[in-house]
Specification:
Elements: E1 4-8, H1 13-24, E2 28-33, H2 36-45, E3 51-53, H3 59-66, E4 71-74, H4 79-93, E5 96-99, H5 104-116, E6 124-126, H6 134-143, E7 150-159, H7 166-174, E8 180-183, E9 186-189, E10 194-198, E11 205-210, H8 215-222, E12 225-233, H9 234-241, E13 260-269, E14 272-281, H10 283-299, E15 307-308, H11 311-314, H12 317-322, E16 329-330, E17 334-337
Parallel strand pairs: 1-2, 1-4, 2-3, 4-5, 5-6, 6-15, 7-12
Antiparallel strand pairs: 7-13, 8-9, 10-11, 11-12, 13-14, 14-16, 14-17
Bound molecules: NADP nicotinamide-adenine-dinucleotide phosphate.
């Protein structure tokens, strides 16, 4: 089994968590990105690892960087700028492509270009294999398993604080596409509606605002739902909108911040509802085990399908979530009557 994985954007905040997690799994990261000095600095902490610099507007350098690798993990965002060039390099190299985009339009681009350019269907292209996107997609897939059709999927993302990275701030500014939800089975613009959500402890009941991310795009590919909505804690949005909110600070040896999250997904068919939650710390840090677990499963043959696909389409969702018990506390699925 080939086990070398090019990490594009390796010296970024999320990229560094991903590199550390690949090493923990015995996979071999290759450090890549546009800034050679930053790559060399990271390389000093990992002297055994190869460095392959490549600018995003240099297709030849990206192709060289991708040569001979089993998979590429793209952690360099905004993904509206980096997604397609890195995915193209992966397609040409015959390597799996995974990224961590929360941008709906960037995930859509990967799916569309895979189809239009006729990229190989025996390698995987999985955008949004991350906290936003992949985690709600896997939770909804697990909860929806007995249903053949779905009336409604609701994702509630509770976050107590959001200390944003530079990449998050840049991505927010770059991403001006209208946010989409699913209404009557079709992607339609969201309405920023507000409500309260009663999260489990320690987050408790608080205001949430409709704020859909890439999970709407991934779920709408494979879950036949009439309506899909995502809500996010108002207090997290307030942090992001405040230009003085500082970047995340590590409070433990693994580099995680003190940020706490709970993602609750409910799937309803008629009067029957299934609900599941996942809780943990630090949305950037938890993205690493999500995307490295996906990469490992692709490399050791545990993907159900290949080609451009959503996380829940590609993997056994329940088994995938169970395997992350070190970093993610996933509840049992609760079956209940819908109110
Ligand atoms: N879906 C999710 O849940 C999730 C989770 C984590 C992160 N993300 C996303 O991942 C991205 C990175 O986040 P982060 O926290 O790691 O931010 P970060 O620490 O600021 O790192 C951003 C990385 O992207 C690179 N980059 C940005 N624009 C580039 C371009 N045009 N060409 C090449 N490299 C470029 C940066 O390189 P330079 O320093 O050279 O600019 C840096 O390596 C953001 O878009 C963020 O929203 C999403």
């Amino acid at each position: 089994m080939k086990n070398n994985v090019l990490v594009y954007g390796a010296y970024g905040h999320t990229g560094q968590f991903v590199v550390a997690d690949l090493l923990r799994r015995g996979l071999v990261p290759i450090l890549s990105g546009r800034n050679e000095t930053a790559l060399k600095e990271l390389g000093r902490r990992h002297p055994s690892l190869e460095i392959r610099p490549a600018a995003i507007d240099d297709p030849a350098a990206l192709r060289t960087a991708a040569t001979g690798v089993a998979a590429i993990i793209n952690t360099a965002g905004p993904f509206l700028d980096t997604g397609l060039p890195v995915a193209e390099a992966a397609a040409r190299a015959g390597a799996h492509y995974l990224d961590v985009t929360a941008e709906q339009a960037a995930a859509q681009q990967i799916y569309q270009e895979h189809l239009q350019r006729g990229w190989a269907t025996d390698i995987a292209m999985i955008p949004s294999m991350a906290f936003y996107g992949g985690l709600p997609d896997l939770l909804a897939t697990a909860a929806a398993s007995p249903f053949t059709t779905i009336d409604e999927i609701t994702v509630a993302i509770g976050i107590d604080r959001w200390w944003p990275t530079e990449g998050t701030r840049k991505t927010g500014k770059r991403n001006t596409a209208p946010r989409l939800v699913v209404t009557d089975g079709k992607l339609t613009p969201a309405t920023a509606s507000e409500r309260d959500w009663d999260f489990a402890a320690p987050l408790g009941k608080h205001a949430v605002v409709e704020c859909p991310f890439s999970e709407i795009v991934t779920m709408s590919r494979h879950l036949r739902a009439s309506h899909i909505r995502t809500y996010l804690s108002q207090m997290a949005l307030n942090d992001i909108r405040d230009a003085t909110t500082t970047a995340p600070e590590a409070v433990d040896a693994s580099g995680r911040s003190a940020q706490r999250f709970i993602v609750e997904v409910t799937v309803r068919q008629g009067g029957h509802r299934r609900r599941v939650t996942a809780g943990g710390r630090d949305i950037y840090a938890v993205t690493a085990p999500l995307i490295t677990e996906a990469t490992q499963r692709l490399l050791d043959g545990r993907a159900k399908i290949c080609g451009a696909a959503a996380p829940g389409e590609t993997f056994d969702a329940q088994d995938f979530l169970s395997s992350l018990s070190d970093t993610l506390t996933v509840s049992d699925i609760v079956d209940e009557a819908a109110k």
